[in-house]
Amino acid sequence: MRAILHRPSEGYAESVRNEPVGILGGIGPMATVYFMQRIIAMTDASRDQDHVDMLVWNHASIPDRTAYLLGSSDENPGPVMAQDARELEQAGARFIAIPCNTARAFLDEVREGVDIEVLDIVGETVSAAQAAVPGLTTLGILATDGTLRSRIYHDTATQRGLTPVEPDDDVQKDVMAMIYDGVKAGMPVSRDRVDAAVAHLRAKGAQAIVLGCTELSVLRTDVGLDDADVVDSLDALAARTIELAGGRLR
Amino acid sequence: MRAILHRPSEGYAESVRNEPVGILGGIGPMATVYFMQRIIAMTDASRDQDHVDMLVWNHASIPDRTAYLLGSSDENPGPVMAQDARELEQAGARFIAIPCNTARAFLDEVREGVDIEVLDIVGETVSAAQAAVPGLTTLGILATDGTLRSRIYHDTATQRGLTPVEPDDDVQKDVMAMIYDGVKAGMPVSRDRVDAAVAHLRAKGAQAIVLGCTELSVLRTDVGLDDADVVDSLDALAARTIELAGGRLR
Q1: Can you provide one Gene Ontology molecular function annotated for this UniProt record (chains A, B) (predicted)?
Q2: Is residue A170 annotated as part of the catalytic site, yes or no?
């Protein structure tokens, strides 16, 4: 799809629109829908035409990322994602966002395949944490066991001179239960449990805490958590996407 | 984007997958997100890969449909929609769904531009009503003033030998208030008001009632309306989309 000549409303007179945005999604399909929802909700718009144009490849059949990363499957999702990115580029996408923390492991492979920018959900999230808490030195991480083991958040934090901290084993067990037995299973999770995990990381010295998992983003909305020191990875990516597209953040 | 060789799970052994589905969306952007959500929720899936692959052009900047149809703007959205459909086809879409009742007015123009099938939201909705109520003869219509005036539901009903009925003026005024002052304005609407409009059409002889407006689809979910004789246009389109894609309906 060709790049669209966007007709800006009056408020946009000075802004440069950089659309359509390419969204490499489907991993999982509902996370992509939630990400689109956040982009729309976070855009300051008084009419449809003020919203960001999006080309979305909601490619649910991409091979399982976690299974491949943990070695229980030899179907590599990397080349499929790289091909999807090329297709979004050919279709006119001006840059690409991938609404998935697990897929961050394949970022280099995706970037190699295209000439347009591919945003880094982890880098954007850590940047958002640094912006939210000036003078930040210690960053707490709430994520799946897999993401903690891959150290994507630890490494980015360390590169920025931050000290990463993760939950103790018993709290991490409850984080996994909130993700798998709660959100993924469609069961309610109490606000108290989320608050307890956040308080635990604060007690360990974290001045900001990232939610590095789509299910935790959904949970944050569900329980109405809006503490300024808790930074949501999908929201960080959505904010950067709107900004880079030339949309107006609410 | 090329057609994807879908890897079916065991339960799909006999089914033919017909993907990716092309979604010509953005009119409005949130209706498209809601439509994707319904496709995902209505698909019987035990893992990401059982879901339908979707190519989505969430093209928010398409000129205002209602303004053009009512003559208050001369920016014609028809050629833009036809071009979007061609782009979805070139990108590999196997057929196209347009999650918008107002846009139905441009269906012929969109269909002329492509060789693949473009679903008719109105036709699918009336078919769903006929399937829901065997022996249906009188069809009630809840929609905007504009959709009633365009007579897209009336005409399709008449072609199928059905008698269309619409609300009396005072009830129609409240339907418009539920859509504009309620859903579009983000204000709650009581279940009683929805029930009253439905009861009014039943009293006028309707054996089935179609919700021919995205905001009414959202409202139906919000108030938890699940009467078997009330047929939702977005759900009817979502069901047909899943079926035609080779997905499994829940």
Answers
A1: amino-acid racemase activity
A2: no
